[in-house]
Amino acid sequence: MSALDDDLDYQILTLLQKDGRMSFTEISKEINVAVSTIRHRYINLVEDGTLKIIGRIDPNKIGFNAYASIMISVKPKSHMNAILTSLTKLPEISFLATVSGDYDIEANMMCRDMEHLNDFIANEIHTLEGVFDTKTNMYMKIHKFSQPDLKSAKLSRK
To answer: Crossing angle for the helix pair 24-31 and 35-47, nearest 10 degrees?
Structure first.
């Protein structure tokens, strides 16, 4: 069963998505449930991997000013797993996925500046055995970055 199928878990997730620092007491008052129930549900959501509490840092405020998406074509395909394994270890990569279309992999990265980005692509991406072709798209300005829409996900389950 998904947390979205349980109304109480859904309410807890919705409140924490708005304010991840909200206390169990505040949550219990908001949805009129005992603090012990909130604590128990919270622990279950963390233990089953549904909920991960992190501090989201604004990259611009700590000096990361060059964002890009790099599309990677792999040939021969037998190198795919090794490339993915290598890319997952690179701290500059914030999102990594296999994709359909002309390319095989999409990697989103955050770098300090253009020099860091250029060095990263040249020395970390292009040096991987099996990287055949790349296409880099620069993010000029990010207009929205958000959490998953719980309401929409819950509606799709009905």
So the answer is: 110
- 70, 139 in Cβ contact below 8 A? no
* Residue range 45-81, pLDDT digits in tens: 999 999 988 877 778 788 888 999 999 999 999 999 9
The CA angle 79-116-134, to the nearest 5 degrees, is: 35
d(CA 58, CA 112) in angstroms, rounded, equals 13
Q: How many residues does the chain have?
A: 158
Q: What angle do CA 27, 31, 33 make, to 5 degrees?
A: 85
Contact 37, 45 (CB under 8 A): no
Instruction: Indicate the pTM of the whole model.
Output: 0.73
